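Many introductory courses stop at the sequence. We go one step further.
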Amino acid sequence: MGTYRSDEDARRRLEELYAAHAGQVHAFAARRVGPASAPDMVSETFLVAWRRIDEIRDPALPWLLATARRLVANELRGQARRSALTERLGSLASGMYGTDPSALAQQEVITALRTLPDADQEVLTLAVWHDLSGPQAARVLGCSPGTYAVRLHRARRRLRRRMESAHKEAQP
């Protein structure tokens, strides 16, 4: 198969691939990320296929499954990062409860984080989720390392306050 003469030819090829293989790609993804995330993996797989339609040789299924496999791996890494973020953010607030960080409910941390302004969420996730150093995170944000350190300190303080407030509201 060569370069398609028109977008119409490429669209028709993609539709054929989808009709023939979407079920198999879905089953492949569902076994790895579960039935709830599988449709997203199928959509992303065929989005990549659309972008690279000229590269897909027959039989197309191995190419599609290899693409789905990479997307699934990315999704699983993302899930692991989100879990690590929740755990690490929980450890920030652990001192206020006098308990082990693992005893904190993940939902409390996520809820508190989501109530923060976007700028605070970004600063915290750069430090905790992406594990960037101060200078690296400052480059991402386009500020000096000193400014980043101040922003991180303030974001942590606001997160602690939100966690304390939620904890007080939950007490009988």
